[in-house]
């Protein structure tokens, strides 16, 4: 099956710093989603981005499907950005998501 | 519009007991999914239902059964719980039977088997 690798596994930032999270996948995809799992365990949809670039406030994401990677940018980080960020993909011909192991982000004041 | 709801939020079982986790969605989605999340890992698919009346196994189906009760509801049953099933269980739904549509997740059920 498809492999999804996220980097870095852990990241510690000072409030106000910027960061880039990466997701590499081993096969072509027709769906890619980014999620934020907050400290209470809730999974929050950030982006549905099988290709191209999207922005939502301080967050933006870019997927380059031909090169099999996606990037999540967080600018001017806040303590509420802390949690685990997951990338998940659907491979062509399937309808189910395969998740990476996530990047744990801690933003300190 | 509540989205995806799950009950219960927490549950403790003894080894060998059975229970059913309930999931409902009010977005008129065709597809529904059950995942489990273990510490330090991403979510893994247990079972899914591409449309009402169909169910299929995912990556980790052993020890579980599912029922797609109607378009809104998809339940997950543990017939004889084992400590290895201690996990957080998430239900999700998406628009289409097959295809790449965005999935939306419920709040999760934290299950402990002693």
Q: What share of residues of chain A is helical?
A: under 10%
The radius of gyration computed from the alpha-carbon positions of chain B, rounded to a whole number of angstroms, is 13 Å
Total number of helices of chain B: 0
- List SSEs of chain B in N-to-C order: EEEEEEEEEEE
Name the beta content range of chain A: over 45%
Can you describe this structure?
The complex is a heterodimer of chains A (109) and B (114). Chain A is mostly beta strands and 109 residues long. Helix content of chain A is 0%, strand content 60%. Chain A has strands at residues 4-7, 10-14, 19-25, 29-37, 43-48, 52-56, 59-64, 69-74, 83-91, 98-99, 103-108. In chain A, a hairpin with a 6-residue loop joins strand 9 and strand 10 (98-99). Chain A is globular, with a radius of gyration of 13 Å. Chain B is 0% helix and 50% strand. In chain B, the strands form two sheets. In chain B, strands 2, 4, 5, 6, 9, 10 and 11 form a seven-stranded mixed beta sheet that branches. Chain B has a four-stranded antiparallel beta sheet with strand order 1-3-8-7, with no helix packed on it. In chain B, a hairpin with a 6-residue loop joins strand 5 (43-49) and strand 6. Chain B is globular. At the A-B interface, strand 4, strand 5, strand 9 and strand 10 of A face strand 5, strand 9 and strand 10 of B.
Please write out the topology.
The complex is a heterodimer of chains A (109) and B (114).
Chain A: E1 4-7, E2 10-14, E3 19-25, E4 29-37, E5 43-48, E6 52-56, E7 59-64, E8 69-74, E9 83-91, E10 98-99, E11 103-108
Parallel strand pairs in A: 2-11
Antiparallel strand pairs in A: 1-3, 3-8, 4-5, 4-9, 6-7, 7-8, 9-10, 9-11
Chain B: E1 4-7, E2 10-13, E3 19-25, E4 31-37, E5 43-49, E6 56-57, E7 64-68, E8 74-78, E9 87-94, E10 103-105, E11 109-113
Parallel strand pairs in B: 2-11
Antiparallel strand pairs in B: 1-3, 3-8, 4-5, 4-9, 5-6, 7-8, 9-10, 9-11
Gist of the model:
The complex is a heterodimer of chains A (109) and B (114). Chain A is mainly β and 109 residues long.
